[in-house]
Amino acid sequence: MKTKLFAIITCFVFPSIVIADGHTNSSANWAGFYAGGLVSLDGGTYTSSLNGGPPQDPALAFDAATGFGGFFGYNIQNGSMVYGGELAFTSSQQVSTNFPGSSFTGSLDAKLRVGQSTGSALIYGVLGYSFNEFVSGGNGNFATQGLAFGAGVDVMVTDRIFVGGEFLIRNLAADGTEFPQWRLEANTQSLQIRAGIKF
User: Which of 6, 101, 103, 133 has the greatest count of CB atoms below 10 A from its CB?
Assistant: First the structure.
């Protein structure tokens, strides 16, 4: 699955580098506010445990899911180095393969980004914190949260419009809302195709 997702994003982003007319010989200007929309392709695994006991083995999987969302951020540029923060949301509903009544319902990601502008492309790393909700068919709800990290590339196709791709890993955990004796831990991956505008 990951191979297919990387192929999709490669076919989408890298042709944009070729058509990014006028930006190939100097670093693009990434400074300022930006916003846009995204399509996410998501998957992952999760485990649950009772009263501090060992997590279930093996971990359970989520079906592959597609989601839609948006993002808003601000960049500071110093030469070719770019720093900034971003808030992003995706509606992707990841359903448990083994228990179709259980699923994640969207994600909110608060991210710090650090990258380098090379011509028309911004190559960056991500470190952040994610929030979402796991709805269990039998053990109530879990308001999961945890660290997120990843990497991405944005490509300027005009002076203001860019497209890109980002791979994000979320490590999430929570005790149950209705049944606190249950604990859920999850590792999810999101591959996003993004398009936005710089203000």
Answer: 103
Domain 2-198: top CATH class:
mainly beta
Residue 96 per-residue DSSP state: B
Q: Provide the residue ranges of all domains of the chain, joining segments of one domain with +.
A: 2-198
Q: Which of 181, 153, 156, 155 is nearest to 166 (CA)?
A: 153
What distance in Å separates the CA atoms of residue 155 and residue 119, rounded to the nearest whole number?
9
Burial of 177 (0-12, 13-18, 19+ CB in 10 A): middle
| Under 8 Å between Cβ of 42 and 65 | yes
Quick: pLDDT tens for 63-104: 999 999 999 999 999 999 999 999 999 999 999 998 888 998
106 vs 96: CA distance, rounded Å: 14
Please state, in angstroms and rounded to a whole number, the distance separating the CA atoms of residues 29 and 16.
17
Mean pLDDT of the chain: 87
Please choose, from the candidates 90, 92, 78, 86, the residue with its C-alpha nearest in 3D space to the C-alpha of residue 29. Answer: 78
pLDDT at 26: 64
